[in-house]
Structures are given as C-alpha cells and as structure tokens.
Amino acid sequence: MIPSSMPVFKRLDLAFDRGEGAYLFGTDGRRYLDFGSGIAVTMLGHCHPHLVKALESQARKLWHVSNLVRIPEQERLADRLVKSSFADTVFFANSGAEAIEAGIKVVRKYHDATGHPERYRILCTNGAFHGRTLATIAAGGQEKHTKGFGPLVDGFDHVSFNNLNELRAAITEKTGAILVEPVHGEGGIRPATKEYMEGLRKVADEYGLLLFFDEVQTGAGRTGALFAHQKYGVKPDLVATAKGFGGGFPLGALLATEKAAVGMTYGSHGSTFGGNPLAMAVGNAVLDVLESDGFMANVDRMAKITQDKLNAIVRKHPSVFEELRGMGLMLGLKCKVPNDQMSEKLLANGLVTVGAGDNVVRLAPPLIIDESHVEEAAAIIDKTAASWNGHG
C-alpha cells in the first residue's frame, strides 16, 4: 500500500523537532551539528531571532493579497537586490525551479521581442542540476532525473562544464542563451574556473546570447559574496536564486537586466504566491543580516578556516578522501568510500551533511558558524574517517 506521503524521497528514520543556530535537536533526544542547512537553505541557522521577529510581525498583519495590488515589502526587497547586484528588475517566485523557469521564458521572450524568435535554444552543461519541473530536468539533462518523463521539453543542448571550446562549437543560429551554475552543486561541488566564467561573458557578447547563471545554491552569501559571479567579476544578464534568500521560508527570485527583460510586459508571466508579504518580510530580514557590517568578511574568514581544517583531514586520510572541492562555505569531500555510507556515519556521530554527485559529501554550514563549530565538525569527520572499516 502506498503511504499517504508520496514515496519520492529516500528519508532517514530521523526527525527533528527544533533547531537553534547551527544545531538541530532530534526527537531521539540527540543534538546534531547541522552542516547541511536543509540543502543550503538555512543560511542564517535555525530560528535566527531577526528572521523570527520579522515573520511573526508580518504574520500578525497580513499573509496574502496576490500580485493584483502593490506589495510594499516586495518593492523594497526588489529595490535592495537591484542596488546590490547587476540587475535592473526582479521577479519573485517560490522556489529555485520556478526562478529558472522564469529565466527560460525571459530568454525566449527577449529573442522574440528583438526579432529572432528562432533563437530559443539554451546551452547547458553536463552534470548540472536546475530543478525538478519538466523544463528544468531537460535543462539539467541527467538521465536519473529525466528517465520516464519523456518526451523531454525541447530547447536545451549540453556541453562539458569548464570547456569553452566545446561551448563555442555548439552554438548555432538557434542558440539564445547560456545557462551555467558557477559551482555545480548536485553535480559534485565543482567550481567554474575564472577563465571559464570570463569566457562565458565574452562568448555571449560575441554571439548575441544572454548569459544566465543558476545561483539557487551559490547565492545569498554562500561563497562569501551576495552572488558567486561577483567573486569572479563577471556580469550576467540573468540570475536565478532561491534557497538561502528565504532562510528556510520558500522564496525564489529571477534577477534581470533591463535589456534581457525587454519582452516581459503585462501578462507575460505571473505567480499567485510569489513575492507575498510573508516571504518578502523574511527576505528583507535575511538581506539585513547578509548586508550588515563585516558579515561577508566573516564568511570569507570562516570559509578559509573550514577549508584549511578539511584539507588537513583529507591529507590525513588518503584512503578515505580524495580531495576537498568548493568555494566559500559551499564545500564537498570527494570520497574514496561510498558517500552515502560516509554521510550515514557522520550523522551517527552527530554531524548532518548532504550527499552530492560524483561520490561527494556536501558541507553547507550556516553562515553564522564560528571556529568552535568548525572544530566540532572537523573532529567528527576525523573520527569517522579514522574508524572507517570499508563496510559502512
């Protein structure tokens, strides 16, 4: 008999009933250090007081009105994101997949509005992950996500990540945009090289393409800047983001230049819940913290400390770990043992992590961690690696 909750998740036999800062407290009575952040979502930890206050205050005033009227907190958050980024305009949604979908529509509408409706195809990279809708699984192109969901949505071509020559060779008269994650998340925590990111902008300009970055995981300070592309010094035309910008509340956004959004006029897109008062109150509260004095500098500092500790552990246990990958506090331990078993052992020892492709254990701690949290996590990883017996 099928369970009442559709069985599309492989859930652990573990539940949490509360969280505080970098810790989760299980119904089993144990405390866990959370270096998974709900898949890079709880960027400011659990129950951050500023977020709690903002949500509670808004919940007592107004929950929902729809986008048929003005939403002042939405306008404020859009203004702030524009001021802090490359963008001229923002569309709010509820998730990363919705933000990517909005970007796909913007690409097609842009070329239609500028006289080239035939330029609807988007170049994507092998190993990417862009969401679970029909269009976004086609953009990701991974068989494990697309199998059984054919015929696939048309309009996506795939090339190797970090390979400009292959990208350039794949451009046709129907190509309209390039869609890339600055750091492959689900695909194994693989950062783009600086040369690749800079080359993407040059190729896009040369061929009249829109440059579209998927920053669903890398946005909201995860890499030590509001957006990862800022670390590379590359300006895109479109950015989709979500996850951390809501701090745990469903919130997605598509940021765009005025040029890219030229076709997005009344009726071209919409959302019932996107940008609602609750989400916008939380989004503004998250941005308050991310933009506070010294916050990003501390993320950079903690990232270096964390990377140094983890690199030392990799060197200490060469039969267990191959390398540390990543950028900022978006990190991955490439394992020589099964990553799912490693994650299970780490959890048993009190550390929450998340698996990723290419046999990687993903580490995405909340950005509010201090050195004591890093020391605690490193000790658990070291202990787990030292006791590894190869049989899980």
Q: In words, what does this structure look like?
A:
The chain is α/β, with parallel strands linked by helices and 392 residues long. It folds into two domains: 16-47 and 294-386, Aspartate Aminotransferase, domain 1, CATH 3.90.1150.10; 50-290, 3-Layer(aba) Sandwich (Aspartate Aminotransferase, domain 2). The chain contains 13 helices and 17 strands. It has a seven-stranded mixed β-sheet with strand order 4-12-11-10-7-5-6, sandwiched between helices. It has a four-stranded mixed β-sheet with strand order 1-2-3-15. Strand 16 and strand 17 (360-363) form a beta hairpin. Helix 2 packs antiparallel against helix 10 (277-290), helix 3 (72-83) packs parallel to helix 10 and helix 11 (295-316) runs parallel beside helix 13.
Please name the CATH topology of the largest domain.
Aspartate Aminotransferase, domain 2
Protein structure class:
alpha/beta
Strand content: 15-25%
| Average pLDDT | 96
Oligomer: single chain
- Count of discrete structural domains: 2
The CATH superfamily of the largest domain appears as Type I PLP-dependent aspartate aminotransferase-like (Major domain)
Number of strands: 17
What is the distance, rounded to the nearest whole angstrom, between the alpha carbons of the first and last residues?
30 Å
* Broad CATH class of the largest domain: Alpha Beta
SSE string: EEEHHHEHEHHEHEEEHEHEEHHEEHEEEH
Radius of gyration: 21 Å
SS element count, helices: 13
Major sheet size, sense and barrel closure: 7 strands, mixed
Strand order of the largest sheet: 4-12-11-10-7-5-6
The helicity comes to 25-40%
